[in-house]
Amino acid sequence: MSTENFKIQIRKGLLEFCVLQIISKKEVYASEIIEELKGSKIIVVEGTVYPLLSRLKKSDYIKHEWKESTQGPPRKYYSISVYGLEHLKELIVSWSDINSSVKELLKTKK
Amino acid sequence: MKKTLTINIGHSIFNIEEDAYEILNKYLDSIKNYFKKIDNDSEIIKDFELRIAENFSAKVSPIKQCIDLSDVKEVIKIMGSLDDFKEIYDDTETENVNEEKKTNNKLFRDSSNRVIAGVCSGIAEYFRIDPIIVRVLFFIAVPLNLIVYIIFWIGIPSKDFDPDLRKILYRDKENGVIGGVAKGLSNYLKIDANIIRVIFVVSLFFGGAGLLFYFLLWLFTKEAKTIGEKMNMSGFNVNLSNVEDFIKKKTKNLNSPENTLTKVFLFPFRLLAPLINAFLKIGVFVFKTIFFIFSSIFIVFISILLVVFSTISFKDISPEQDPKFHELLNTIPDYFAIFSVVFLLLTIIISVIISFYVLFKKKSNSYFFMVLIFLWIAFLTLIMISLPNIILNMQDLNLLPNWIDGNYSFIWKWNDGIMLNKNN
Question: Which residue in B11, B43, B79 is closest to A45 by CB distance?
């Protein structure tokens, strides 16, 4: 497995987790999610977010609301649902499990 | 100077240059196609459009009011191409699509890899063999193949196995020598253009069927003008890298340089091209004029026939007025009169549609046209079936005109139907 492929796999696995996490902090619209994800280099191209958002909405983890914006057309603001919060908690638990075990592995290697 | 279009994308209005619009349109189409399985309420595509609009509004300013090709390319780069989405989604959503493709083993016409209607490539897809094998088999089986092909054409629904690769036959005038017919065909069939040119030239020495074919193709195909048409012409898969490649090719003309043999071969045609072009243009004009005259005469003739026939056959003529004529009318059954009227009406409609197509390249709904043709054939058959009886009936009653029943008479033979026989 090449390094590039490894990165893709990791990103792919974490994308949903990260998006949920961002939405859980506050109500955001798509571009804000994209900015944040791009800043932390989770995504490379913007388009990948939309199918994910649509999937999350279909699983009732998130909901959206149209809001007027000061500049330009109205924006779609996403917020997390009760289900989504539960799901996110589970994800956080499993992430910290994996994270600590990987850290442990790296330690013993040294 | 460039032509611009006004588009409404994500609730915002932009002026966009024509070539940029073509690319943007292709890009959105390809995304729509890609996410069609999971994007039932087209929400994803709307979100895409919203974001593209945001990106666009960052690109326009009072100094630069129009979205151009480089803006679109940049935005496509930001949004990501199909390849990028495949990376993330290939093992979840698209797998279902693939599976469906595998399990759904139904026969379709493959409209994305077609030469005529995609029957052969559909069959090839079904049996998972190379379409060329099926095509050759079909080609050998003349004339049975024609019937089979047409039946399949009508009976099998079409499906794009690879929706981005829909091919349309255009003339490629830009890269062509005379009218771009050969080059267009080569793009379409993915055969080297020179092979097609050689076939055209060689056929000149064998009765000139190639010339007629060339002329017909010229007449019935459009020239690829916009980038979208040019990409459709060669069945380009639309994603960012391809769009870039295509534009590079277009601007730098990266087509492989011609070797000397090709140059020598093409030289006389290049020399003659302007002449032939002018000649062909005149030819098309003359052909269209003649066609117009003939078709109008034909349509008028049929219309008159229709009017005359319908007035005669539905009129009540009393036996006293013209006893012979009355009897003649009585031998024509009502159903036959109705068939004939409908048949003539259909003939008129069909010829009007065909004339419009040839003269103005205005296409009508092809299903509608197919139904018309089907009805026309059906009524023709009905008339053919009922005609012999009527003629024999007339003969029995001595109603046929003298020039026929003096020396000749109709007889019915089971093998050949009705025949004109010389009397002894």
Answer: B79
